[in-house]
Amino acid sequence: MEVVINSCSSSSSFGGLFTPPKVVRCNSLLVTSVKSRLCNSISCISVNSSNRLVASKPKKNDENNSLFWLVRKFNARFALHHVVLFRSNERLLSKLRKHTISLRTLVKSSEKLKDLFPVFCVWIVLGMMLFMAVTAPVTKSPSWALTEENLLFLEAWRTIDRAYVDKGFNGQSWFRYRENALRNEPMNNREQTYAAIKKMLATLDDPFTRFLEPDKFKSLRSGTQGALTGVGLSIGYPTGNDGALSGIMVISASPGGPASRAAISPGDLIMAIDNTSTETMDIYDAAERLQGPEGTEVQLKVRSGSEIKQLSLTRENISLNPVKSRVCETPGLGKGTSKIGYIKLTSFNQNASAAVKEAIETLRRENVDGFVLDLRNNSGGLFPEGIEIAKIWLDKGVIVYICDSRGVRDIYDTDGTNAIAASEPLAVLVNKGTASASEILAGALKDNKRAVLLGEPTFGKGKIQSVFEMSDGSGLAVTVARYETPDHIDINKVFLTHLLI
């Protein structure tokens, strides 16, 4: 038998916060009614008219009908209101049956109970018992437990949820994706879990937000800590990854390294690594393939302009000392020659700011008249190092605005405390290999009128990534923000053409 009695109130759901149900007896069957709050106690009703008549005039010591009578007295106006037959949870039904027996005992002498206690006291007691009866089974965790693989997936999901720059998550419901993935994606081993995480990140359509297996994460960290074994290339996606070209683009080649000696230049396109096409390869996979034990060889297919070259490079230990400096003498304006301190900054690793300071102090001892900061083919690196180097040259002002989908989130500026070269003439050299943190530094020096910029249009990468280590040693490179120069110029995929002098 199925009984549904309409309610004038809106229906409730078991999916969210639990609201205690009401219990009725209907031809000796337990029925639950879900209501928005436990405000009207318990309604008991019968299906047929004869039962309702008995319930309205219970016989003495009639245990069942006494219960009907008692609750009818409390809730007469709610009879035939908001009652739904509940059959789907047998455990809950069994639990409610046991507690109904307790309720029967409680109201066995309902006439005496009515006389001894005010109506509202009995209402509270019944409500509390009913609440204890149903909250435990309903609010319990799902019958399926989260596995270790599920927990790793959730760790990645939470990292993106908290840190990702686009809180619209590329137009999708991020919470719904989590639920669907936990239900439908196979996560029986680590390989399947990694695949599920990569599939999740792919929905963001952001090539810079990537999952890094433990070995790739270790490789990425080594590249920012001062040394690696490889061919000395900084790589990225072609033309800002706008889809015009496929493959892996050379942003810069470390001076004196294997790639530089083989005449690989910024803008060249790596078409294959060890006979594996790079057409759909991500930059982290490419970086892993380029690195390897010292003395081993790697085969590259490189397109330079219209020429295609097959190259064999021997991996070696690449020293990532990010700064080289020297004194250059140039013809002066009416006073013979001028001494210019030339500083070549190749990357923003953890040694960069200290190395720049040391270079400035060394050149000053040579009585230089000004400085040239060469950022050509500098593909970036650690964002904090870029900020610290800007503070070296600026006595005050905004360095960069960090923005998310809602606008400006953070402002990095300086009060001149760390400035050691804020007054000497300064020129900055840029080209299409100048990217990311290099563009932040160049934009800050230009917009604060601290330096003039000379060269070519820059790469145009205006997004900032942070790298998060996962509990199993893997990592997530996450786009956490985009940046604007002090003049609020967003250069992502636009280049710093406006900086040319």
From TrEMBL:
Pfam families: PDZ_6, Peptidase_S41. It is an enzyme of class 3 (hydrolase). It is found in: Plastid, Chloroplast thylakoid lumen. One of its GO terms (molecular function) is serine-type endopeptidase activity. Residues 217-291 form the PDZ domain. The keyword Lipid biosynthesis does not apply. Keywords: Hydrolase, Membrane, Protease, Serine protease, Thylakoid, Transmembrane, Transmembrane helix. Its EC number is 3.4.21.102. Protease involved in the C-terminal processing of the chloroplastic D1 protein of photosystem II. This proteolytic processing is necessary to allow the light-driven assembly of the tetranuclear manganese cluster, which is responsible for photosynthetic water oxidation. Belongs to the peptidase S41A family. This is C-terminal processing peptidase. The lineage of its organism: Eukaryota, Viridiplantae, Streptophyta, Embryophyta, Tracheophyta.
